[in-house]
Amino acid sequence: MSIGAQAVARCQAWRHPPFSDAPDGLSRRYLTPAHRAAITEMTGWMEAAGMAVRLDAAGTLIGRYEGTGSKTLLIGSHIDTVGDAGAYDGTLGVMLGLGCVEALAAKGRRLPFAIEILAFGDEEGSRFHSSMLGSRALAGTLASVPEIFDAAGVSLAEAMRGFGLDPTQLPLAARARDDVLLFLEPHIEQGPVLEAENLAVGIVTGIAAQTRLKVGLQGMANHAGTTPMHLRRDALAAAAEAMLALEEIALEAGIVGTVGAIEAFPGVSNVVPGRVSFSVDLRAPTEAVRDAGGEQFGKVLQEICGRRGIVAEVQTVQSLDACYCDAAAQKLLAQAVATCGVAPFYLPSGAGHDAMSVAALCPVAMLFIRCLKGISHNPAEHVEVQDVETAAQVMLAFFELLAGQ
Amino acid sequence: MSIGAQAVARCQAWRHPPFSDAPDGLSRRYLTPAHRAAITEMTGWMEAAGMAVRLDAAGTLIGRYEGTGSKTLLIGSHIDTVGDAGAYDGTLGVMLGLGCVEALAAKGRRLPFAIEILAFGDEEGSRFHSSMLGSRALAGTLASVPEIFDAAGVSLAEAMRGFGLDPTQLPLAARARDDVLLFLEPHIEQGPVLEAENLAVGIVTGIAAQTRLKVGLQGMANHAGTTPMHLRRDALAAAAEAMLALEEIALEAGIVGTVGAIEAFPGVSNVVPGRVSFSVDLRAPTEAVRDAGGEQFGKVLQEICGRRGIVAEVQTVQSLDACYCDAAAQKLLAQAVATCGVAPFYLPSGAGHDAMSVAALCPVAMLFIRCLKGISHNPAEHVEVQDVETAAQVMLAFFELLAGQ
Q1: Contact A191/B at CB under 8 A
Q2: Do residue B202 and residue B333 come from a single domain?
Q3: Looking at the structure, do residues B124 and B185 belong to the same domain, yes or no?
Q4: CA B350, CA A293: separation in Å to the nearest integer?
Q5: How does pLDDT run across A263-272, given as a tens digit for each residue?
Q6: How many of the other CB atoms lie within 10 Å of CB of A321?
Q7: Which one of B272, B289, B320 terminates a domain?
């Protein structure tokens, strides 16, 4: 069985109990029995490949395949999932790393650096309302266990103790910078770009800078039958104009802007909406480009609202800086991709990943794998075995290129 | 006290118990104790003015002031209200009719036609989910009592019996056509046009033809971060474009088009909306103009959706024909308005009124009275006494013009 076929088969098997806490539909949340089952099976595979295995204080499973040098290449992603999840988000990256090490071990090949496969236990934040706990602990940016609770009221510290982890030991999960060469995260794209480009894999340039806004528009509610168009202060019409302006700004700047949520008040068919609130999600490869888009949107919004007699209030809900993938690693990945007969293609990631957190520790690189229609966080998530095998071959080629430096 | 001041004072007094069923805020629903209290007081006023008073089988209070001829001029509106209502919607028209008859009676003036003041008990439909029960019974278009229930599960027939009405007698509420000259309904505008025109009263040309649509747009839900703008099928962006198109169509045609309700699914900030549904309310002076607007909207919607990869489904929820006010009566009202020193101004009604139902029986006319900012169905509903007095003088002048014919 090829590395790709093996990785896909393992992800598929993990869709069901005991690797899922739900009888139907995959749900593998942090520090649950399904998480434990996954750790146990993964430990067996790692040990069979001659790796030294340990669980760090944050519940990240780490398998180490020794090299001839002192530095370490970290490879990994997360094995937790959202509710009713797909099989590949996160997990596939871990399986690919494991498969590559198994291939090296089978040939007795040792590289001038060690490889560690990391299986983070929490990236999604689907159990506690905080995400990337594993990768943040690794990077040393999570100094202590936050006081957060799951839906059943269990605290994170309590859940850790129940899992055999000592919350007071969390700082020990932080890695020493000097030991680490690079963090490589293989991951499904969760978007439609590679499919549209007809490419199996792509090289990630960075993870987008993101801003989330909440926009409130106050106009005047009126009778839909008795208020002439020119005497209206229709908050929803103003919102419509603002949404199209956002779309145009994003298209022109080559970034993404989304209105995902909207509410109109009073929200009945025969009343002109007096108040509307809607969300804005703006992402760009750099903070500067994102901020320019945001400023442009703010200006256009004020112009629209001034003209329509609407009062606009814009609130910044969240603002995340961009994370840049290591330039040298991108170049090396491109060489490796070309070696496998695929045209090197660079793309930014609009979604957040563990690599964002690990970037606080060391240079990071990401390899995206094409997925069907970009569907993710959904049981319909799908990858082609051939694409996964291409990713595995790219990774092996990348190891050799890195070894040659 | 002037007729106008008296009418306003009576409306104000009826804002409170026993004329309201709510201790705070006006609520006078069909066949309730508040309705009974209003009927009792109104009966006293009518009898004091020398009118013969009866309650018809639908609970409409009718006071008859005899004339010298055999025909009857009907004047009236409704005395029921929505919840937390204003004082004037409906009720003011009845008080104005009553006040005019009181003025005639005080002078011993008999006209060549009788005048009947009608106080309909249900126009709003705020107790049962069917409206204009009183005026429909009068027009003979409500043959039997519909099987409908209020929020407490009381049937309409049961409520009628509890009020001393016999549901089986409902057909007897229908008026003979030959007896009736015209129905005149004085009513607050419930819109901002007369205020914008700086006019106390206006002559209604008709009640708008109305269409209510429900539009469903099906696109594709996608990750807001990973889906480039050009690969999206954003149902909300399509809806935004459709809303602006509707606004433009209405502005150009001089009609009104409103999107009052909208829902986006899944409705979260980081997902491109895959599905949207919204309401469309379209009103125009004639069915032809309304239908032309509707067809134009449908075409533009298809164009927008075709271009954006969206499937649109349009459902007609309701379609009401226009009601035209009698041309001769409009002319006579205009003369009467001019007599009172006001420039005759014609305007359509975007809202429905009892006159719509009575139009099945006889010619109808409506006189609109300016109200503050067009606010209605709201405790802030307000009219100026001077405007109401102008309306009273217009009505008295109208009687004399009608008498002279």
Answers
A1: yes
A2: yes
A3: yes
A4: 41
A5: 999 998 888 9
A6: 14
A7: B320
